[in-house]
Write a structure and sequence with these properties.
The complex is a heterodimer of chains A (about 260) and B (about 240). Chain A has about 260 residues and is an alpha/beta fold. Chain A contains ten helices and eight strands. In chain A, helix 3 packs parallel to helix 5 and helix 7 packs parallel to helix 8. Chain B has ten helices and ten strands. The chains are: A alpha/beta (about 260), B alpha/beta (about 240).
Chain lengths: ~260, ~240
């Protein structure tokens, strides 16, 4: 059985967010039986680095050191569009990034914005990589509400859109929008076993992926939730890793 | 060490399904000695649901304690609440402004709180998930009724809201393991944290494991896992 943690953050040394090194990260993965992680810079790692250049460079280096186990998703600031698009193109084509992480709340943009989000999705479609999107309860402007992702899903049906945290408390909305659009996948961090089972039963085990949001979540606890879920063993295997392996085309050996 | 689960739903509704036998089996499995049970939503009427809870406590004395679920909108609810507490089966009250649609600060709430004060029982007030019940409003209520102990669930703003209110306690789901592990739990007073699973919405197994991973000192663990609730509910 392959286990891929579909949502983690890797800040690096001096940020107060363990794991702080590649070795420590691999050790945590080994302790928890995790074969590979999807990882991306956390918001608190960037400081004044609004382009995410430093944080992405750190991840690129980490991926080089553990290419089969650390699967980076490049993080960008959509407000700096030209820079963001250039970073994604370079990152995916030449640095081994496997996808793009968007955080509508922290970057203060609506995920259905034609001006800010659509150009990134268009590039993701061209590069054949998924988008991992933070979703959750309404912030001031509701930028990260899961149903807004429907706008992106409708316009770019060829792009896999992974809803981080399954919309948090708006998980019912996340499940609904996933029913409306087949290119939406739900990620499980912070959801309960009951909520995960509900997602699997409503949209199918093929479209739910395990994630811990480490270091903000605890991999052992988030994996326990999958184990305690009242779904079949086959469904658990899909959620724990097979689905992410398919989304990232790991079995095909493609990058 | 005595483990008390401070908030558990018992009954059959569209949201949850948990009978007393199932619950006792789960408690035995993870080492929970006592569960404080309450009728689950939706309302608006809870007489039958409270009756189910009452019967479960009488069936499992010493293992189950109960909160009386109140909808303060209803005519005659204050009298019903008083009668229920006089039976000495229920050890506290339960208010859910989100599901029953009233503001924590509204006038309908106060007569019920006064009954709790007269009877010397704590009041659990659901908060943190709707405009009806920001945790700050529960803190205001605690400031107004200083002779009543209040309990409210963990949410993003709740730890700050409960500070400086000695009669306001926080349930812990999800248990703040990382805050204790990484040393940023300074705004979580161990004397006012109450372990709770919200079972069957939450998992007792997961919440117990979260506590283990937190690496709490023995005295803190004793308070959080049962000591605090034992003190304010007289369990």
């Amino acid at each position: 059985m392959v286990v891929i943690d579909g949502h983690t953050h890797f800040a690096g040394p001096g940020k107060g967010l363990p794991p702080c090194s590649v070795e420590e990260f691999l050790s945590v993965m080994d302790e928890n039986g995790i074969d590979a992680v999807v990882t991306t810079p956390p918001y608190s790692s960037i400081g004044a680095d609004r382009t995410y250049d430093d944080a992405n460079a750190f991840l690129a280096d980490a991926m080089e050191r553990a290419p089969d186990r650390i699967l980076g998703f490049i993080r960008v600031n959509p407000h700096l569009q030209e820079h963001a698009l250039k970073s994604i193109e370079e990152g995916v084509r030449h640095q081994g990034f496997r996808g793009v992480k968007l955080h509508p709340r922290n970057e203060a943009f609506a995920i259905n914005s034609e001006e800010l989000a659509f150009p990134i999705a268009e590039l993701a479609a061209r590069l054949r990589v998924p988008l991992l999107i933070h979703t959750g309860e309404p912030d001031t402007y509701g930028f990260a509400q899961p149903t807004l992702v429907g706008g992106l899903a409708d316009a770019f049906p060829e792009v896999t859109l992974i809803l981080g945290h399954m919309g948090k408390r708006l998980f019912e909305d996340a499940i609904l929008v996933a029913k409306w659009f087949e290119n939406i996948v739900l990620e499980t961090s912070f959801r309960s076993p009951r909520e995960i089972a509900r997602a699997v039963n409503r949209v199918g085990a093929e479209r739910v992926v395990y994630g811990s949001d480490m270091p903000f979540g605890i991999p052992e606890i988030e994996m326990m939730k999958i184990r305690l879920c009242e779904i079949s063993g086959e469904a658990k295997e899909k959620v724990l890793g097979e689905n992410m392996a398919r989304i990232l085309r790991l079995k095909e050996g493609e990058s | 060490m005595r483990v008390i689960d401070g908030h558990v739903f018992l009954g059959e509704t569209i949201y949850v399904s948990q009978g007393p036998e199932d619950l006792i089996a789960k408690m035995n499995q993870v080492g929970i000695e006592v569960s404080v049970i309450v009728a689950p939503p939706p309302g608006p009427f809870y007489e039958e649901a409270n009756k189910v809870v009452r019967e479960a406590v009488q069936r499992y004395p010493g293992r189950l304690a109960a909160l009386y679920r109140v909808n303060p909108h209803l005519e005659g609810e204050v009298e019903r609440t008083r009668e229920a507490l006089e039976e000495r089966v229920f050890v506290g009250l339960h208010l859910d402004p989100t599901n029953d649609g009233y503001g924590v600060g509204s006038q309908v709430v106060e007569p019920v709180i006064k009954v709790a004060g007269e009877m010397g029982v704590p009041v659990y007030v659901h908060s943190g998930d709707s405009i009806f019940c920001p945790p700050e409003a529960v803190a205001d209520l605690a400031s107004k009724f200083v002779n009543v102990n209040f309990i409210t669930p963990m949410s993003r703003r709740a730890p700050r809201a409960v500070q400086d209110r000695g009669n306001l306690y926080l349930t812990t789901r999800p248990f703040p393991t990382l805050a204790f592990q990484r040393g940023y739990a300074e705004n979580l007073d161990p004397s006012r944290l109450i372990f709770a699973t919200d079972s069957p919405l939450g998992s007792p197994e997961i919440e117990m494991r979260r506590v283990e991973l937190a690496g709490l000192d023995a005295d803190v663990k004793e308070k959080v896992l049962g000591g605090n609730l034992q003190r304010i509910m007289g369990l």
